[in-house]
Design a protein that fits this description.
This protein is of the alpha+beta class and about 325 residues long. It is built from 8 helices and 14 strands. The chain has helices spanning about 100-115, 125, 160-170, 175-195, 245-250, 255-265, 285-295, 305-320; strands at about 1-5, 15, 20-25, 30-35, 40-45, 55-60, 60-70, 75-85, 90-95, 135-140, 145-155, 160, 205-210, 215-220. It has a 6-stranded antiparallel β-barrel with strand order 6-7-8-9-11-10. The protein has a 3-stranded antiparallel β-sheet with strand order 2-1-5, with no helix packed on it. Strands 12-13-14 form a 3-stranded antiparallel β-sheet. α6 packs across α7 (about 285-295). The radius of gyration is 21 Å and the shape is globular. The protein starts with a strand and ends in a 12-residue tail after the last helix. The relative contact order is 0.10.
Length: about 325
Amino acid sequence: MAIEVLRCPNCAAPLPVGARALVVCAYCNHTLTGVPSAGSLRWDGPEAGPDDGRPRVHVEGRTYALHGLLARGEASDVFLARRDARITEQVIVKVLRAKGDEDLLAREWRVLAALHADDSQGADYFQRLLPQPVAHGRLTGAGLDPRPASVLRWRSGFVYTLDDVARAYPHGVDPRAAVWMWKRVLSLLGWVHRAGYAHGAVVPAHVLVHARDHGAVLAGWSCAVRSEKLPAVVASARAYYPEAAWAQGRASHATDLIMTARTIAKALGGDPAQGTVPASVPDALARLVRAQATRSPDAPADDAWELEEQVSQAGREAFGPPRYVPFTMPG
């Protein structure tokens, strides 16, 4: 069997054979110019990739080679993997560990599907910041008992959570870094809220950052809700929840904003529950963090995009006009 393939240089996803000079990748939306009309790679042989000794697992009729454990969540293990085929792509395989939480994994899949089907203003941009579903079903292979799993498209560079950042910077990140982290999360939440959802679990383990490109996205969508009732809380993250969300299982857009501020307080080396930050944090930013972290969830909620502008204003007051300041993670 002969297969001719063009590969996107940004995400390595396959492009259609016979592509013309200007192509937009359907996977990462990267615009490519000067693309030849013939495939740049050619294979003759079976569909499967080479046997490299990595464990293989199967989900919905597709085989994936596991590269290693990325994270261990409350109920699932998250692996970096690639599709075991000549036309391949890197993916994330999220494997349920706690069988009693099967409903949460299925719920996350439904929420992501609904958000990706949304056609409100800005959807084309913000949907690229969401986890991108590939497959969902029973995982088999690698010596495991069959168990629920989701396969999501890999986002290059988003390898650190804010938990990782807090461990790397126990005394707090540069406040200028906290400004862009906060703004990126609020920007995404603004669209999610307009789509009718609250994330419901904005805790450090669910905020993924791209250190070089100053990006931040959200994982952990199993708790996203349209109504006020949360399906679950993250047991290890009590300090990030307002009392109403923790004790009564209620969540709203205001809950997301409070939890975001508490998560940023932690990144700054402060106390998330109280919203206090070290004295080295400029007053304008410190006041805004504390005000948002300690506000009542029942008070009228700020729009996430309005709060993003307040963060920008606090940043300008503290540091002047925005400019790129490198942020690095050890290793």
